[in-house]
Amino acid sequence: MATNRRVFRVAELIRREISQLLLHGVKDDRVGTGMVSVTNVDVSGDLQHAKIYVSIYGTQEAKSETMAGLKSATGYLRSELGARIRLRRTPELVFIEDSSIEKGSKVLSLINRLEQERSSKKNTLQNEESE
Fold first, then answer.
1. Are residues 45 and 7 in contact, defined by beta-carbon separation less than 8 angstroms?
2. How are strands ordered across the β-sheet holding 92-97?
3. Are 39 and 55 in contact (CB under 8 A)?
4. What value does the mean pLDDT of the chain take?
5. CA separation, residue 25 to residues 75, 76, 127 (Å)
6. What does the H/E/C string look like for 51-88?
7. Which tens digit of pLDDT belongs to each residue from 35-93?
């Protein structure tokens, strides 16, 4: 078992290298359909498995195409990752779609809408009191 600090460092290194590979290394057009960014990487304690969370900007169709492209490019990405980082074994890669950014923007829009409704009600009440 690796220490927590080592697991964190390996996860950060994998995130950085996979991000670079997605920008410049993958030639699959499906990966370029949606704008892809790596949001998080979870590495198991034995450094054998890595869950890579990706955020994809675009339509639902573009997201599914991008996920299919990432799944087909997993072998290439793993071999490139093994060449770039020095580990005894290169972790198995699993790509997971991360929708937390979209959920966060929905929550922010709801908060902004509630704030606007409250301010409009407040203004209406003030106008009624002044009349």
1. yes
2. 35-43, 49-57, 92-97
3. yes
4. 87
5. 13, 9, 61
6. EEEEEEECCHHHHHHHHHHHHHCHHHHHHHHHHHCCCC
7. 888 999 999 999 999 999 999 888 888 888 989 999 999 999 999 999 999 888 999 99
Task: Outline where the chain has alpha helix (H).
Answer: 4-24, 29-33, 60-72, 74-84, 100-130
Residue 12 has pLDDT above 90, yes or no: yes
Name the phi and psi angles at 108, rounded to 5.
-65, -40
- State the pLDDT at residue 33: 62
Distance CA 40, CA 53 (A): 5
CA 59 to chain centre: 15
The structure's pTM equals: 0.78
Report which residue type is found at 37.
S
